[in-house]
Amino acid sequence: MSVTFNNRHKNIPIPELTNISKWLLNTAKSEGYDLGRLTYTFLSDADLHQINLQFLDHDTFTDIITFDYNQGQLVMGEIYISLDRVKENAAINSQSFRMEFFRILIHGLLHLLGYHDKIDSDKKEMTAKEDYYLSLLPPN
């Protein structure tokens, strides 16, 4: 198991990540998966927009892009997150930056675990899973 966190955003620091790898591992195990190599990279809106254009041909801003390299039940992937979007979403949802940050971390992992959020019923299920796993978040 290898979880890597890379903050490439110049102006927004990320929260303390103590025990977060274990939390992600336990989430994967709870869903019947083993955690292999997982990389989170934190970027600006502009940088994530470029990835969206280059790899997905989407000319839109987004909060997260997930690349799935799973091998059966072994979770492997790259997750790119806009910290600008996390900050904005936290304000919109009257949530702390820390909680919105961890929500997007688990959201990306849930995508790798087979959950989707394109239609309302899937989004509802994913949000319920996010809420559940956030309740298991280790104390800071």
Low-confidence stretches: none
- The CATH C-level name is Alpha Beta
Indicate the CATH architecture: 3-Layer(aba) Sandwich
Alpha carbon gap, first and last residue: 22 Å
Helix run count = 5
Residues in β-strands, percent: 15-25%
Give the overall shape, derived from the CA principal axes.
globular
SSE sequence, one letter per element? EHEHEEHHH
* Cα radius of gyration in angstroms: 14 Å
Question: Largest sheet, described in full?
Answer: 4 strands, mixed
Give the class from helix and strand content and strand pairing: alpha/beta
| Whole-number count of domains | 1
Corresponding CATH superfamily: Metalloproteases ("zincins"), catalytic domain
As for the CATH topology, it is Collagenase (Catalytic Domain)
Strand tally: 4
Strand order of the largest sheet: 1-2-4-3
Descriptive account of the structure:
It is a single chain. The protein is an alpha/beta fold and 140 residues long. The chain has one domain: Metalloproteases ("zincins"), catalytic domain (Collagenase (Catalytic Domain)). The protein has helices at residues 20-30, 45-56, 83-92, 97-112, 120-135, and strands at residues 2-7, 34-43, 64-68, 74-82. The chain has a four-stranded mixed sheet. Strand 1, helix 1 (20-30) and strand 2 (34-43) form a beta-alpha-beta unit. Helix 3 (83-92) packs across helix 4. The protein is globular and about 35 Å long. The model has no long low-confidence stretch (mean pLDDT 95).
Question: Topology of this structure?
Answer:
Layout: E1 2-7, H1 20-30, E2 34-43, H2 45-56, E3 64-68, E4 74-82, H3 83-92, H4 97-112, H5 120-135
